[in-house]
Design a protein that fits this description.
two-stranded antiparallel ribbon; 548 residues; globular; mainly alpha
Length: 548
């Protein structure tokens, strides 16, 4: 198939873009870039203005990840294990960047959302698994955001029902303006609000030297009897820091913001800014929670984020507790923004519904209806649930995200190696090697989690055997592909010249990819295992609930 060179000024009908509202001027919260502005970006002032106009997708997707579930997960890690799990955040930095950089490329180059690409390139049988996972997980995650609202409101002494209704109204109204720029300004303001965790950190003043040590030196708290519980928290940290909804959200948001490949380097800077903010916030939460409960009866007795706020108040005063509750409220709302939009974008992609924040409600009724419907249903479920079921659901969502992440990453990796989709933007060997290793580690963590659910008293030796077995399997798989998977590399090199102007042709013009038997078997085995792992997690949650 011949490569198609798309000028950014071509009509939407001739490109792969599904909604013509996704072509036009970039109207960001902090600046504008006109569609016909193709001048080279020279000089510090011009580059800074361009960056300010582009900033948004990477920042919002990362800060949205430090949501209500993250407050619970990081709070649990800090209260129960001190700062001994800080090293997990450092290890997740390259994972965050590589995953989100790949979806950034997919969005800017293709102009088509993640869900639609999966369905078109792998068929409905394979794509349905990924899309159904997203819908299920997003619906549950949205409930946890409203749980965060109730916890923050309860600590601040605000009425529960009124707080949830008001939060839902704000979340809906911010998107219903019919202006992408107005929505992004609200979202970026909330991102700035997430920095409230920094002054709280200094008010609680945990030991910086200890945090620096634990950030770079891995350790496993507790003995063999606690290893299963610790692994559950680690998988939760992975699930809340690198969540599947992020992949779908950023790709669609990049498209809706009208970002094209020639602004790729600016969007990568935006992504790095977001990663820095999310890691600083996560580390601050672990550190201040660890310091607040160290040497108290509450150490090792995590219950929920509201209890963390009370512990911070006991340690550093009422103001610190109030700021923490406000930060939790802020995080819950921005998380709800991102998760709701992720789902509405995906459904719009799959079913061909107009789906853009540039459109008013009348111009995209289905898109806004899905967005508002999700918010309303999640708010209602939250108001009808008990405190215990809310805590259980929050933990369940984070663990489930960790279990489902490997499959989402596999589809992402396959799409980023599809030359018909990305052309000169396909992955290089280093990115493929790193991402494959990440998938292996995620599968290993998922295996350990499943084993811990089936055998609650699993020993540290058994977990080490699982890790060793996964390591051996990984080496064998890597050896196979190194030996037999390089045959076409030198014969068919990727020509990356002129890639700043390369866009994916319309989907209907692309040849369908050929699925090899080995790939079908591998993907089928992964999905079968993940289905079993999901069932095991559900069993664990039910057992916990019945035991309660």
């Amino acid at each position: 198939m011949a490569d198609v060179m798309l000028d950014p000024k071509v009509p939407a009908a001739r490109s792969a873009v599904l909604d013509d509202a996704h072509i036009g001027d970039i109207k960001g919260a902090l600046g504008t870039i006109r569609l016909d502005d193709d001048a080279p970006r020279q000089g510090l002032s011009v580059r800074l203005k361009t960056l300010l106009a582009i900033i948004g997708p990477g920042l919002i997707v990362m800060v949205g990840d430090n949501d209500a579930g993250a407050f619970s997960t990081y709070g649990q890690a800090g209260q129960n294990y001190g700062t001994q799990l800080l090293w997990t955040l450092l290890m997740l930095v390259p994972v965050l960047y590589v995953n989100q950089e790949m979806v950034l490329r997919l969005g800017a180059v293709t102009g088509v959302g993640h869900a639609r690409l999966i369905l078109e390139r792998f068929g409905r049988f394979w794509g349905a698994f990924s899309v159904i996972d997203l819908f299920l997980l997003n619906a549950l995650t949205l409930v946890t955001e409203f749980i965060g609202v109730t916890l923050a409101a309860g600590y601040l002494g605000l009425p529960k029902v009124a707080s949830v209704v008001l939060a839902a109204a704000i979340i809906i109204a911010s998107a219903f303006t019919g202006s992408f720029r107005r929505f992004e300004r609200v979202a970026v303001t909330l991102c700035v609000g997430s920095l409230l965790l920094v002054p709280i950190y200094f008010m609680v003043h945990p030991k910086t030297s200890q945090m620096a040590h634990d950030f770079v030196v891995p350790s496993m708290p507790g003995g063999s009897g606690q290893l299963a519980a610790v692994m559950l928290v680690i998988v939760s940290i992975v699930g809340t820091t690198v969540a599947p909804w992020q992949l779908f959200f950023q790709q669609s948001y990049v498209i809706d913001k009208r970002i094209t490949p020639r602004f790729m380097k600016y969007e990568k800077i935006d992504l790095w800014i977001g990663i820095a903010v999310v890691i600083i916030g996560a580390a601050a939460m672990m550190g201040l929670t660890a310091a607040a409960f160290a040497g108290t009866d509450g150490f090792g007795q995590f219950s929920d984020a509201a209890a963390v706020a009370r512990g911070i108040e006991d340690k550093a005063g009422r103001l610190a507790g109030v700021l923490f509750a406000i930060a939790l409220l802020d995080a819950s709302i921005i998380g709800a923004f991102a998760v709701s939009l992720s789902t509405a974008y995906a459904i719009g992609d799959v079913f061909g519904i107009k789906h853009s924040l540039h459109r008013g409600v009348k111009g995209a009724k289905g898109f806004y209806g899905i967005y508002a419907g999700l918010v309303v249903v999640a708010a209602a479920i939250t108001l009808l649930s008990t405190e215990y079921t809310q805590g259980l659901m929050t933990q369940f969502v984070q663990v489930l995200a960790g279990v489902l992440l490997p499959s989402a990453t596999v589809f992402l990796l396959l799409l980023c190696n599809d030359k018909a989709v990305l052309g000169p933007w396909v992955n290089g060997p280093k990115t493929n090697a790193f991402t494959s290793a990440v998938v292996g580690v995620l599968v290993m963590l998922s295996l350990i989690l499943t084993a811990a659910v089936v055998w609650p008293d699993i020993s540290s030796e058994a977990i080490l055997w699982i890790m060793a077995g996964c390591g051996v399997a990984g080496v064998l798989v890597a050896g196979y592909f190194f030996t037999f998977g390089r045959s076409g590399t030198k014969e068919d090199p990727v020509d990356r010249t002129g890639r700043e102007n390369w866009r994916m042709p319309p989907l209907e013009t692309l040849e369908k990819p050929v699925m090899s038997t080995a790939r079908k078997v591998g993907m089928g085995a992964l999905r079968a295992y993940l289905l079993i792992a999901m069932i095991m997690v559900i069993i664990k949650v039910v057992q916990t609930a019945l035991g309660h």
